[in-house]
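Good day; I would like, with your permission, to put a structural problem before you. A protein sequence and the structure tokens that stand for its backbone fold form the material at issue. I would ask you to consider whether the tokens describe a fold that such a sequence might reasonably adopt. I set the record out below, with my sincere thanks for your time.
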Amino acid sequence: MWRLFCIVLITTAVLATTEAYAQEQSSAVDSKKQLKLSPGAAGRSTAAVPANTPPAQIAVYKSVKPNGTAMSSGRQPLNRPYQIVRYDCFACDPTAKVTWHTVPLYLRPYNQLIARAASDYQLDPALIRAVIHAESSFRPAIVSRKGAVGLMQLMPQTAQQLGVLDASAPAQNIAAGSRYLADLIKLHNGEVSLALAAYNAGASNVRRYNGIPPFAETQAYVERVAILHKRYQQAG
């Protein structure tokens, strides 16, 4: 009788343990289902995200090719060391320690593409080169934290409106960015400084403030592009 009672107790304990384990595994499966990525989610979970979560930053990978050439890319290099950097508009940080009157110029890259865009949209090629320098420091694969892409840092919506298929392709980016800049210059009656302010902060903000908006970033940007423009003109 005592032996039968012990067997009943052991069997009950085993069943209880098994049921608890099954519930635990079921909860784990449900949790995994909640964290399953939806198609095109690009690494984001479908689980709820707190409202105050900061937006994801886009990584830029900086590496050196075997021949010693430095390069930056939005894709992780596979066969060489790299470091991850974050990027925003090169000339937009008001606290940047760059000396704009002496920073090295990019006189040779994309000469033909810039000359073609200047001819197509009646722009000074030195101005196009100054904007590229200010926006991306001549790095075609750069993607900013806000999502702007390429040499002239085109926002996705702007690129789409201009018919750009690949904003990281220098030919498409320079042509579209130059066209956009030319349109802004016409919109602001030839006032290049206002067009540059609109390029940085949006035409609506230029209208709102009836001039260059009182944003430290925009004011720094306009001033620095003007310095670069003059230097590229002088450099020929």
Observations:
- The radius of gyration is 28 Å.
- Residues 181 and 199 are 7 Å apart (CA to CA).
- The chain is about 50% helix and 5% strand.
- The mean pLDDT is 76.
